[in-house]
Structures are given as structure tokens and as C-alpha cells.
Amino acid sequence: MDPITEEQQYVDQAYRRLDELIAQYRHELAAIRLTGDRDNPVDAFQRDSFAATYEDELNRLSHVRHQLVLGRLDDADGGSHHIGRIGLRDANHEVLLLDWRAPQASAFYRATAKHPLGMIRRRHIQTRGRTVTSVEDELLTSETAKISRLSLTGEGALLASLGRARDASMGDIVSTIQAEQDRIIRADGDGVLLVQGGPGTGKTAVALHRAAYLLYAQRARLARSGVLILGPSASFLSYISKVLPSLGESGVVSTTIAQLLPGVTPTGTDDAQATEIKGRLAWEKIARRAVRYLVRPLSSPVKVRVASVNLEITPEMIERAQAVARRTGRAHNAAWATYAKTIIAELAGAYERQAEGGDWLTADIASTDEVRRTVNSHWLPATPRWLLDHLLAHPDLLSRLAPELTAQDIAAITRPRGSELTEADIPLLDELAELLGETPRAPREDDDLEKYAEAAISGMNLGGGIVDAAMLAERMRPARAHEPLAVRAARDRTWTYGHIVVDEAQELSPLAWRMVGRRCPAHSLTIVGDLDQRPGGAPEGGWPALLGPLAKKMRQEVLTISYRTPAEVLAAAEEAMAVRGIELAHPVSPVRSVDGSLRTAATLDEAIESELAFLDEHYGAGRGLLAIIAENPPSIDHPQVHVMTPREAKGLEYDSVILPGPIRAPGDLYVAMTRPTQHLVLVEGEHREATDRR
Fold first, then answer.
1. Quick one: which H or E segment has residue 448?
2. What is the C-alpha separation between 626 and 451, in angstroms, rounded?
3. 202 vs 185: CA distance, rounded Å
4. pLDDT band at 114 (very low <50, low <70, confident <90, very high)
5. Got the DSSP string for 33-63?
6. Residues 253-285: tens digit of each pLDDT
7. What would the mean pLDDT of 308-336 be, rounded to a whole number?
8. Partners of residue 197 on adjacent β-strands
9. CB-based contact 226:485 (threshold 8 Å)
10. By CB neighbour count within 10 A (0-12 exposed, 13-18 middle, 19+ buried), where does 33 fall?
11. pLDDT-based confidence at 426, cuts 50/70/90?
12. Residue 653 in this model has a pLDDT that exceeds 60
């Protein structure tokens, strides 16, 4: 039997089993929905739990239908395993398909002719839909086995994937993972794993596949705490959005630093100077001083009148109440309640010494305008937004609270009260939110619900340390009863994740890294990036200078092979950097050359016309993507043409890229030049100087 027919039979068997499981879960879900509502809350909860489980499984299985079977491993003892996008067992619970993340599957990505790991053959299976189109065998014991200078595995499948047209979504690399990538993907989840990777090395794909691997290997832990993926832009998150679902994982939170604070969306912009100033670690100390500024001594007694009785708030009374509040160790706003209650209690005692009080006394004192003004003005409750606005609108105050900033620094970030928030404000707001805590609030519907739950616990004799009112109230909120973990985590600023993946990590400021670290106290992080792609190039001190305290737990891996970018384009990018006096800290080796990949054009219109014609001819009409990357992008309306700045292009890839003019920041130029898989077209401009000499 020829290999394609042989593997087609196996692929058919795997898809039949996948279809059976999908049909089974649909049947179970439909049956449980028919049970309807029940009076017994335990039964209702159990029904909803099963329904949520079936829905999750249906969602997972429906996303893994493409290229279900990836390949086959044959060992020296005559055994074989088929490797798949997910694991499958047949009706008799025998392994039908081995999950690519299983330990037994690691040889599929790591075995070589020199180190076969007990295997004699690796077979890559290419499919279109459910049809096997080709197989590629690698003999792992023969001395004549084909080994490229870069020790690639599945070279034919890899090059075929690189030659396909790009589209709006990133594809997974589960069928073509290389040995250096697999080692990183399967590394344990403890500590901070830094992955330095130049253009086209697959660092984003590695990070996402690592997230999928950890969700498989540490399911119990991460199912409770979740995984957070931080990307550089909304367009980048849209680009990678299908990768994890295609690997059977969707329970992650994906966002940017700008969107990490629930309910806060920055709409303003800062220049580079203001962005750098706001990202400094000095704000850790400045923020603490700013919060302490909200707690002030009383200089002289304040007389108040409650129900015809004259009372006095003294400086000593304020000082004692502030001391009591500080001893709670709570955040500023949470401690305010203790501070206020202490003062009201002292005033109530003074009242009773002069007149007879009643149940109304405390509330009446607390509602007196003069009491409220005096109490609040000496321990002022505040929101992060209000306090940041106050600081940036009052340069004299900021200069007193921030001796680390120069007068020029303060002038660069001063703005009117009520200005739009910027992305650089988000870590500042998070720093303040951590110190301030929740603002005091009036009773809400949720409070009533919790009181009802407390009464229900008492009436039903529940609890005993296992169920409390807050837990029962949460279950009674219909909209939240079975929300996915990702949804709950995304709306909770204080949520701590089991693992965090940070892509394009070189872009984060030192203060932003504090914001990231706060969301994973265990410091289980995968950080991927390229220092050479920073606008100003690699900083002195390298990654430790950027990561700060997180660098203490850091171990580093370096990806050295560029799979995406043609050799000619990489060479031009390196030379363009050299012309600007920058030597790359982490150069990479290209996998392939593409004839004519480096091109020039007299005008932008000429370049667009030529590249669209190339895409039509190379891939077929309407297929493939062209990017125009510029500091001030033109406006072009065409479905195959994406227009963006170098910052917006980070992490993305295109078939062809046009640079219509000079790009000043060296790191931005390096990013822009290394996005294509086929052609880079340079229109007249400063950046042609490197290629003119070639």
C-alpha cells in the first residue's frame, strides 16, 4: 500500500472518532437542556455545570478539525504512534491519536539522525481538509539521512508552510515545530523564561504553543488561575486569536498593557519623551508619596453642632484615628473606613457625655456636613484617575512629591485636568490603584443580595466554614454563575494568573513590568522579544536593565534561525542598521533565499501595482497580503493592502512589504524591513542607501 493511501485510512479513522465525540457531546447537551428548571437548587447547579462542560468540549473539538493528524513516529521496536493536534481514544479507550504535547510525542520534534531517541522514522502528513495530499519521511538511523546545515526537521513541510499566502490570521506551527523551538515550548513553567528571538524566528508561535503546552501539562493548576497573554497591539491580538483555539485551548485572557485595567481605555497619546518619563521605576516611590499626601494633620480644632450639642474635632483626635487606620495595614481607601469610624466613635462618646443619645446618634453625626468635610479632608478617599489627574495638572505639587523628576521632566508630562488617558498612564494608574484600593461605596444591589444569601445560609443550616454568604451570592447571580474563568479574570484588576506570556516584551517600560509582575506573584512567566527591535536598539545592560526585579528569576533561551525572512532581506536589514552605527546584538541565520526578494521602485503607486500583480500570479487572484509600513502611513483602500506604522507592524508578517519613505528610529526600521516572506520593496528614500551599495 502506498504511503498516502495508508495514511488516508488512518486520517479517516481519526476524523470519524472526532465526529462521534462531537455528536455525543451535542446529544448530551441537548438532553440536559430538556430537563428545564428545577426547584432543587443543587440539581439546577449540577445541570448547569454539566451543560458548561459539554459546551466547553464542543467548542474545543470544533476548533481542531483542520489538520487533525500531523504525522507518525516509528520506533526501533516496531511500534508506531500517530501524532495529532489533540489526543483521541477510540470507543475501547485505546490511544488513537497522541496529543502533540504528550511526553511520548516530543521525539516527533526533537529526534535527528544523530540523536534518534529510539526512533527510526518520522513521517510528516500534509492534508487539505480531510484529504491526505502528501507525506514526507525522514529516516533517523541511516548515515545518508538528509540533514540541512541548520538541522531542520520536516524540511519539506516547513518550506511549504513558508511558501503559502499570508492572511489576516496567524497559523499555528504545530506540524513544523523545530527542535530548538520544541525545547523552549516544553520547558517547565517555574520562574521567568526569557526567549530572545530575532525577526522570523517564530518567537510568537513558540510563546503561544508554550501556553498550550502548559495548559496541557499543568491543567489542574492553570484551570483555577488561568493564563494571561499580553501583546503589543489590538491588531496583533486579532492576528494571533485563532492559534490557541486551533490547538484545543481557548480559556486564556488576551489583552494589551493598554487594556489591562478593567473599564479603562486610553484614547490620548504621549510623545516619546513623556512615555519614557512615565515608565520609570521612580514612580513606585512617587505614587507612595502621593497617597500619603492624601492624609493630612489637622492644624486647629473644628467646632461642629449635632442636634443642638456643640462638639469639637481636635488635631489629636484626627492623629489618633489616622494611627488606628494605618495599623490595619489596608490600602488607603479601605483604611478610610476605620479612620472615619474611629472619629465618629469619639464624637459619639463626647455627645453622650453632654446629652442622652439614641440609635440615631452615630448616623446623625456621620451625616453632619461639617463632620464629613473635616473627616474626609484629612484622609481623603480617592480614585486612581482623580489622583493622577491632580498630580499631572499641578506641577508645583508634583515637584514636591517627585524629587526624582527634573523640571524639564515635569513640564513634559504636565497637562490640564480631565485630559484623555494615554497608554503610558495605565501602569501609573495600576500603581496608584494598588495603594489606594477600592473607593468607599454606598450599598448596592449586590449588598442586598449578599444579605439575602446570609439569611438563606442561616435558614437552611448551610455553611459550617464551607459556604459563606459571598460565595452563595455569587452563585445566585445568573449572569455569573457559570462564566468562563477568562471572563471573570479579565474584569478583576486584582486577579492573579498562574502563568503570563508577554510578547514583544522589549516594548514594556520598567513600570509596566511591575504591573505585569503584580498579576503573577509566583513569577511564572514566558517573555519573548528582540532587543534589536526596540526603537533605540538594545539598551546597555540588556534584558536585566528592562526587567528589573523579574530578572532575578530569569533564565534565557535564544532562537537563532529565521524561518520567515528571506536571506537577501535579512542581509539588507542588517546593513541598514550598520549604516546607522548599530551592530545587532542577536543576529539570526536565514533558512532560505528567495530570488528577487529585495526590490526598489520609483513611486509608491508603481510598487503597489507590481506587488499586487505578483501576489495574483504567485498565489491566485485575491490571495496574499501586502503591507505598507511608514511613519506617516498613506490612506489606501484595498482588501489585500494593510497600511500601518512600524510600531503597529510588530509581530506581524506579510507576503510583500513596501517602505515608501525613511524610518528614523533604527529599531523601527529593522522591524519594518523584516516583515516579508517574499518581497521587500524600497521606494525612493533614505533607507535605500544600504541596498544601493549591494
1. helix 445-460
2. 59
3. 11
4. confident
5. HTT---S-HHHHHHHHHHHHHHHHHHHHHHT
6. 999 999 999 989 999 999 999 999 999 999 999
7. 94
8. 559
9. yes
10. exposed
11. very high
12. yes
644-to-43, 79, 623, 651 alpha-carbon distances in Å: 54, 51, 20, 13
231 — alpha (psi -120 to 50), left (phi > 0) or beta?
A: beta
What is the Cα–Cα distance from 536 to 286, expressed in whole angstroms?
27
The residue type found at 600 is: T
| Alpha-carbon span 31 to 20, nearest angstrom | 16
Q: Is the pLDDT of residue 424 over 90?
A: yes
614 Cβ contact partners less than 8 Å away, ≥ 6 residues apart: 656, 678, 679
CB neighbour class for 400 (10 Å; exposed up to 12, middle 13-18, buried from 19): exposed
Confidence class for position 438, pLDDT limits 50, 70, 90:
confident
- What residue type is 412 in one-letter code? A
Cα dihedral sign for 625, 630, 633, 636?
Answer: negative
Task: Provide the 3-class DSSP secondary structure of residue 197.
Answer: strand
In whole angstroms, give the CA distance from residue 81 to residue 12: 16
DSSP symbols for 120-144: EEEEEEEEETTEEEEEEEEESS-TT
Q: What is the spatial distance between Cα 332 and Cα 431, in angstroms, rounded to a whole number? A: 13
3-state secondary structure of 592: coil
Q: What value does the CA radius of gyration of the chain take, rounded to a whole number of Å?
A: 31
Interior/surface letters 416-450, b for 16+ CB within 10 angstroms, e for the rest: eeeeebbbbbbbbbbbbbbbbbeeeeeeeeeeebb
**Euclidean distance between CA atoms 155 and 161, whole angstroms:** 10
pLDDT of amino acid 251: 75
Q: CA 57 to CA 330: how far, in whole Å?
A: 42
515, 257 contact by CB (below 8 A): yes
Q: Which amino acid is at 461?
A: N
Q: Nearest-CA neighbor of 603 among 550, 676, 561, 660?
A: 660
Give the Å distances, CA to CA, from 344 to 308, 336, 337, 372, 680: 17, 12, 11, 10, 72
